[in-house]
Task: structure prediction
Amino acid sequence: MRRALGQLRSVGLIGAPFSRGQARDGVQLGPDLIRTAGLVHRLQEQGCEVKDYGNLTFEDVSNDEPVGNTKRPRAVGRANQQLASTVQRVKSDGHTCVMLGGDHSLAIGSIHGHAACGSELSVVWVDAHADINTPLTTPTGNIHGQPMSYLIHELHTKIPVLPDFSWIKPCIAAKDIVYIGLRDVDPGEHYILKHLGIKTFSMTEVDRLGIGKVMEQTCDHIFSKVKKPIHLSYDIDALDPSVAPATGTPVVGGLTYREGVYITEHICQTGLLSAVDIVEVNPKQGRTEEEVRSTVNAAVDLVLGCFGRVREGLHQNDYKMAEP
Result:
């Protein structure tokens, strides 16, 4: 695979132009920008079959009043239920699912729909933030900072009733989660991560160990007993703002471009990648066209890394050198 384009990969692409899990307009533009940057063609160039399922259309929910501190729960609940059924369809059709967001609240539906296909999953969550607040620990009320809490079995009793969330059933075990890139974690999240013993690699560990060792230990952890399909949920703000500035909650001191891409290359080489989320690209947060372009191009390259692009180059199996 490092020298030739081998096994054909089948990619099912879903656009989820949804922004109600947070307050900043513009993140709904992410899916079309990533497509316009040539994602489908470039996947095909490196030997993938691609079926684009198009963009989901989300209903506009009126009178979506907060419940406690949690904002816009009805819109988020309904959008994720719709996304979950679409992800389940893509997986049933035999594809590796790629969900282009949209904000990170969409991971609720993406992971739930993936898990509904029958097998237990490992989740690799690459993000500056843990996104594991519950509705009762969140300081902001934005659900894009909460998606993991709805999915983890061990937090089931900590989640209050929310409108349009009753369809969600916890589907991930704490032991099957690895976080990479953390550097902005709320106190409630820190408690949850430590209390549940979730494996985390903050940027301190990335600096200390190097990304190669981080990925070795990630795979050692998630494959310690049974090799399960991997769901990679990748927030573009995991990358340093010098690489990906056009995002809603940038945090300095993030992954370099090289580290970010290496994560995808390493997971690809396991042969177990089953679904990918790329979220939180927000062109309205870029101050210049170049900032937007840099962020979108990084998102494209992360997806390409998931499906066999290696930086040393590739060639087709049937490539023949021209003779004079």
Remarks:
- The chain has a mean pLDDT of 96.
- Residues 232 and 286 are 25 Å apart (CA to CA).
